[in-house]
């Protein structure tokens, strides 16, 4: 499971152009503690929630939010994460985030 995510992080680093203070690779690496939850194999952990909160603090401007939105959208699609779990993650971690982890979000309209 972890090897697959690491491989996807490497691919995303080549595909998604960084236009903000955090690259897509860094963003996906940051939420690695949530992998088991997002794939549907376990519950939300404290390290996962800490990662969500930290990631939420990194992007503030519209271009940064859009770049992060595109990154998370593509990652969600490629990794076949559980979409319901992804949508629930910020609420479970008590984090209000403007970036949904959802493969159906339109990042161009949202930001």
From TrEMBL:
Record key words, sorted: Lipid-binding, Signal, Transport
GO biological process, one term: lipid transport
Domain Bifunctional inhibitor/plant lipid transfer protein/seed storage helical: 24-107
Record GO terms (molecular function): lipid binding
Signal peptide range in chain numbering: 1-21
Keyword Signal: yes
InterPro entries linked to this entry: Bifun_inhib/LTP/seed_sf, Bifunc_inhib/LTP/seed_store, Plant_nsLTP
Family: Belongs to the plant LTP family.
Protein function: Plant non-specific lipid-transfer proteins transfer phospholipids as well as galactolipids across membranes. May play a role in wax or cutin deposition in the cell walls of expanding epidermal cells and certain secretory tissues.
Protein name as catalogued: Non-specific lipid-transfer protein
Organism name: Heracleum sosnowskyi
Lineage summary: Eukaryota, Viridiplantae, Streptophyta, Embryophyta, Tracheophyta
């Amino acid at each position: 499971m972890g090897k697959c995510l690491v491989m996807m992080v490497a691919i995303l680093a080549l595909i998604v152009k960084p236009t903000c203070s955090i690259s897509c690779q860094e963003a996906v690496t940051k939420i690695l503690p949530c992998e088991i939850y997002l794939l549907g194999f376990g519950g939300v952990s404290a390290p996962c929630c800490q990662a969500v909160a930290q990631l939420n603090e990194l992007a503030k401007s519209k271009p940064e939010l859009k770049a992060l939105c595109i990154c998370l959208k593509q990652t969600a699609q490629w990794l076949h994460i559980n979409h319901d779990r992804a949508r629930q993650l910020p609420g479970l971690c008590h984090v209000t985030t403007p970036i949904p982890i959802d493969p159906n979000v339109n990042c161009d309209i949202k930001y």
